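Input/output pair, single chain:
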Amino acid sequence: MVAASCTEVEFIRLFEANGAAGTARILGVGVRNVHDRRRRIEETQSIQLRSPDPRSPDRLTEQHPARIRLDVDTGTVIVFSDAHYWPGMVSTAHKALIKMIGELQPKLIIANGDVVDGAKISRHPPMGWEELPSVSEELETCCERLAEIKAAAPKKCRFTWTLGNHDQRFEARLAQAAPEYAQVKGIHLKDHFGMEWVPCWATWINDEVVVKHRFKGGIHATHNGTMWAGKTMVTGHLHSLKVTPFTDYNGTRWGVDTGTLAEPDGPQFEYGEDNPKNHRSGFAVLTFHKGRLLWPQLVHVIGPNEFEFERKIYSV
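Output:
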């Protein structure tokens, strides 16, 4: 139980200033206890307590300027990554994302890096004389797809965007070629995506789940990531779409790879030279109950315009 010495007025002030995890640290109690008292106050006083808005300047500059902390008591979070959006193409996974947003009504949607591909500013050499989309064409496509996601989401849904290595190409190229333009609007990728997509290096949920584009590499990345971090780690980058449980004296946590929202054999990946790729198209669904993360689930594309979720086949 939350300490009795903390009055309801004090608790409300602490919660709305610090969120569930911050309030738990200040009071020296568990996060679940904080959520329990939050629900009781909401029921008895007919009010809704809100965690701090991650978009506020004060929230973004505390301790880790590039880390966003959010609390999710009970509800769904959708995490997609590695969309590598390409002009003229709408992947099955993107269609599935729009459909499942409508069905699951998530409280938070995270674009976990590599929204943009950056084909013409890639480190990979061009494949002969292939036609590659321009930076402006890619940006226009990314904005269209992100707008579709926002339009499908419930009104109170929040959005964060963790920077990926392909996303970095946009600003890295400009910073190298024209550093004197650093403060000009439009020079940053976030200027194009819209204010609702709050940029960060990592999104922390309930101080127990860390969502970021990449951490550990290799075929055991999901295992090594959660083992070394001591947190549930939700990453993209490797396109492998899988969930790896890890249990120790602290309980069970998970390493989650969110796959790719692109088609694994799409034109974005021609540099792979038609080699077999251990890539899968889809995204992750995180469900929280009373502040606790349940076993993470995956939406998996199984064919053109078909995907599976919870052992059901859907068409888009």
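The chain has two domains: 1-51, 53-315. Residues 55-64 have pLDDT under 50 and may be disordered.
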